[in-house]
User: What shape does this take?
Amino acid sequence: MSPHIPSQLPLRIGLRDGATFANFFPGQNAPVCHTLQQGREPFVYLWGGVGSGKSHLLQAACHAVSEQGGTAIYLPLAEPEGLLPQMLEGMEQMSLVCVDDLQAIAGDQEWEQALFHLYNRLRDGGNRLIAAADAPPASLGLGLVDLLSRFGWGPVYQLQPPGDEEKSAALRLRAANRGMEMPPEVAAYLMSRAPRDMHALFALLERLDEISLAAQRKLTIPFVRELIQ
Assistant: This one.
């Protein structure tokens, strides 16, 4: 990391190990995944509701850059404790900067100015920025018109939330990548008994993995029913 970038940010910003492209079921969002995996666009803006996969894709892009020998940082602005606009100074030397939850700083003049200048420095240095929010740029409520215009310079994608079939497929993909065999009927049972958002389903899957390994049991409906109860 550049000496101009704090070697240790005063908050715990980490990438989830499982937040990779291999662990993401694209479904209707295949064009977005393709663009991010190619890494050719200097700026990409993603927006969508809770559970649409924004944070996963931003972290997946960081993982991919790191695996290729580049430098990347993920900044979740909805968790601002200890995160200050001044920390963006020097980050233009990163291969990729991913800024999540832009809506959290919309209307904050200091943050908007800092992001505007970071965008320009990244562009001038030939490096990349991926930003994500819960709304398209024009609906964020940004006060800095120049920053709003920058967010329209690259592709803007609305992430489509997964339907039930896609959730089931995503759950089985995540299980397979953890070395677990999850029959379709078990995935259907989980979705009918557990919270439907993907964060909750993946958290439950992690718990099932730990318990099934300890018990040396396969994922069957009777075993899953026993655990849930």
Q: What stands out?
A: The two ends are 48 Å apart (CA to CA). Strands lie at 43-47, 72-76, 96-100, 128-133, 156-158.
